[in-house]
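User: My collaborator sent over this chain with a note saying "see what the structure looks like." That's all I know about it. Can you take a look?
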Amino acid sequence: MGDRQPGSRPTRATYVKASTLNAFYVGRGAPLALTQTSTSTVGDVTIDDVTYACATAEGGVALVRSRTTTTTAAKTQGSKKQKTETKETSVTSSVSELARYDGDEEALTSIAIDRSGRKVFCASRSGHVTRLEYESSTLRRLKTWQPHKSSPVLDMAIDNTGSLLCTGSADRTARVWDIERGYCTHAFRGAHGGALTAVAFHPSINAARVYTAAEDGSLCVWSLNDKKNNGLVKSMADAHVSAITAIRIDVESNTLLTAGRDKVVKTFELDTLKPRTTTAVHETIEDCVILDGNSSIIRETGIKAPVNGGVVFCVSGDSGRIRVWREGSAKVSVESAPLVAKTLTKGGDDEDNDFEAAAGTFTKCAITHHGHHITAVSGDARLLTYGVNSESKALEIEREIVANTDEIIGLTFIPDAQADSEEENRAKELGAAEGDDDDELHALTRPPKQMAVVTNSPTVRVFDPSTMSCVGSLTGHSAVVLCVDSALASDGTALIITGAKDHSVRLWNGATKSCVAIGEGHVGAVAAVAFPPKSSKRGAAFAVSGGADRVLRVWDIDGARRVAAEGDANDAHELHATAATVAHDKPLNGVAVAPHLRMVATCSSDKTAKLWKMPDLVPLATLRGHRRGIWACAFSPSDRVLATAGGDKLVKIWSVDDRAGSDTTGTCLRTLEGHSAAVLSIRFLSRGAQLVTTGGDGMLNLWTVNAGACVSSIDAHEDKAWAIAVGGDGDWIATGGTDASMSLWRDSTATTSAEEAEKHALAVQREQEFFNAERQGDVTRAIDLALRLERPGALLRVLTRLLEDDFERGDERLRECVSPLQADKLTRV
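Assistant: Without extra context I'll predict from the sequence alone. Here is the result:
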């Protein structure tokens, strides 16, 4: 196991956090408010800023800004005589948390934000409303009060001037508040028979009207100027037969639009509240918006104007689609693809499907400032921006912000052929320069470009690890995805494989994010998948999987790709299993493929790991020694050893040499102790010289294999750290956990070593200066250097000699010597 020289491979010692993603929105229907705060265009660059005020899991508010930069560049093609000019558009997005307010730990019921994005109001279940002001990168609390005594506020609205706030409460009343002066200007009561679910101001200041709706389907219009009849202008007790969830106003078409959970959208004359049309949309509506007639969504999709000058509106709800309707139409005009595949979910033994169900629904939508995009919020805390595809004329997701990843249970860096080639060249240089300390050879590889992340959702998200922005998603599974792995095919194509609770395995193209093939055959949740390691010369010719049914399966990846290449690229083909066996007495937790491809390892909750001979899965050895279930296993890329991570807090390293005459029984070579909870994931790095593990204690531990010592221990997560991915042979590490956070870690060994060397050189220099000053009788300089070097013994020697040399004037000379010193150094003396 230790037959190579250590100089031929870099040894890691420390890591620093390069980027991180933390949850800033609890999701699952919690309140959220958004506003387009600015749009600016300079030349060919347009910058759009959207500010979100989101409810956090702690009952607080996070203020987040999403910035989208669109760059249009002219490109000339053709010969000198016949040139054609085309425009290419590139879009980049980023999200940053501006500030956070902790709150009172009570769940929030409503949030409102003004047009400037600086005034934020949040209402909690306790009945309190808090006014927050954003300034100097902080959310400052200005006031907290109970507008409706002990009843919670269910909806709030701020008028266009930013001076009035309307609160709708569970006590069936609405109140209007002067924001700056802090007093109630109007109290509207007596017209609703249920809790208020929606409130809105008239967009025109001169109109001075407020619109309210309740859970009993009633709708009211109130005047801010006329106090007759308590300000009630008009009321309808049966506007809807269920709760009204949204009120929208379009002054130009004189339209008041309401949407409810009775699956209909109704329009009224804005000034008289006269009913105009009823549109059945066949889904429970959570929110809706009215589209402007000049919107590119209407123009590019060819939606005709409604009869008699009606409006075009967009709805979002439990269908998981963004749908655009014409007023009074019986058929949807344009719709997006569903958030989650609506196929039969086999995982009937799931105990908690809340987040899975929320992933397929929308809770809020809004139109962007220029009217060309729709921003929608899904139940699993994704902030999606939809636009029209110029070719298909369909609504498609253009940008995605993941506000809450929920539990992160799997990670993998999507490989890049060019980056892997650079890494191989670097490894050759390191091997050729064995013993050479040239720092240039130890320069870090570029950070991975993309990372597939498995969360408590049927959708696999793809992130840019450097910015932690979501750049894509893999949609197709009908139940929560549990595992993921990636590899390069022999032709350089990036492949991703996933396993889920829907009992299926899916193969994806890493570049197009499309499903290539689907493997069926498991009769339980698929908890582990693995490709051959990238050190394999054949590429990802096959993959293995295992799960709750205790069965290990081998899948023909090359065969599925050949069929896909001959067929329709848009269709998902069948992924065939070439071998299968019942591997363990309990569910499989992990699988791994040896670099030489002749062996596969499995680990299980039955406390054992097993070795299997490929391609027929003939059993080779059973590895016993863990006192609890084994969560993960990994082969060394260079040594013939296997590492296992157990629920007994131990890491074990086993001999797995399958060569003729070798020990194939699986001898335990070393046991590593260091975690205070179950070890949940494990990876080799530094070309097999080191191990990295994460555990239930949230720690990220770095181990040296030969010495069996823990080199570094990092407190990476506040809860269980389930997921880990390694890039650049250890230059980059990504971790994820149940605390809904994800981090990218950079190897900082070279930087730390350089800093330590610099500190050592400076200390040696000051040490010499101290001895010189002491010999020359420069007492002040000697005292100063002794304090800097933290040498109390040397300081005592200098002071004692000073007093002994001139006993009569010792005190006076001491004062002269220490008077130039700074106050803190004088105190230490």
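A starting point for your reply to your collaborator: The first strand starts at residue 15 and ends at 21.
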